[in-house]
């Protein structure tokens, strides 16, 4: 929490001293989620794909540096057959399930541009709030992000890696037999953005 507060405070100060150049636009993402399963007894979820869409706001804060934020919707569905290795005798040996995740994501990034904004690197964080799963703990996940990208005309695209350091716990079902997942998030993200309004 102290880290989040510090980052938001620094960005607020930078925005107050920002130049006039900013843009507002749309962005879409494709993700490849590779969750790091924790322990043996929880259900094991595999790698899978997802996507998202949202709006972004970018403001130049100093020369080739800009601060970016926005609001995105993200969806991932895991299809998995769990072999239940290590469960007591009498439990099913093969159990198929679908695990859907719907997130509202608030990204906060710093970007450094090169070669007249043709290339850039960025780093920051995402606050991802899960929707419709009241048993997930925590409900809001902090993800760290680093990546690089390029700009062609007005179109920007980037490849990013995001990860979480805290274990995520969720209940898949209570009956007929109890199923939980425990994991740490690992996501490879390909993002494309386009400005709708610039100044």
Question: How would you describe this structure to a colleague?
Answer:
This protein is mainly beta. The protein has one domain: Porin (Beta Barrel), CATH 2.40.160. Helix content is 8%, strand content 63%. The longest helix is centred in the N-terminal third of the chain and has 15 residues. It starts with a helix and ends with a strand.
Brief digest:
Helix content is 8%, strand content 63%.
CATH architecture: Beta Barrel
Across the major sheet, the strand order is 1-3-4-5-6-7-8-11
Number of domains: 1
Number of helices: 1
Question: Low-confidence parts lasting 5 or more residues at pLDDT below 50?
Answer: 85-89
Distance between the termini: 34 Å
**CATH class designation:** Mainly Beta
* CATH fold annotation: Porin
Biggest sheet, in brief?
A: 8 strands, antiparallel, barrel
Radius of gyration: 19 Å
Write down how many β-strands occur, each being a DSSP E stretch of 2 or more residues. 11
* Helical coverage, percent range: under 10%
């Amino acid at each position: 929490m102290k880290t989040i507060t510090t980052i938001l405070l620094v960005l607020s100060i930078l925005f107050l001293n920002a130049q006039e150049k900013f843009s507002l636009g749309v962005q879409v993402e494709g993700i490849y989620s590779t969750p790091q399963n924790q322990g043996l007894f929880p259900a094991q979820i595999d790698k899978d794909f997802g996507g998202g869409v949202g709006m972004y706001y970018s403001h130049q804060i100093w020369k080739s540096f800009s601060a970016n934020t926005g609001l995105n919707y993200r969806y991932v569905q895991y299809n998995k057959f769990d072999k239940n290795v290590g469960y007591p005798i009498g439990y099913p040996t093969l159990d198929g399930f679908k695990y859907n995740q719907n997130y509202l994501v608030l990204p906060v990034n710093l970007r450094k541009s090169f070669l007249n904004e043709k290339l850039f690197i960025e780093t920051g964080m995402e606050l991802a709030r899960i929707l419709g799963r009241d048993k997930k703990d925590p409900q809001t996940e902090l993800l760290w992000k680093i990546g690089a990208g390029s700009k062609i005309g007005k179109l920007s695209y980037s490849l990013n890696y995001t990860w979480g350091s805290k274990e995520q716990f969720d209940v898949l079902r209570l009956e007929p037999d109890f199923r939980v997942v425990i994991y740490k998030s690992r996501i490879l993200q390909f993002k494309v953005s386009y400005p709708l309004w610039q100044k």
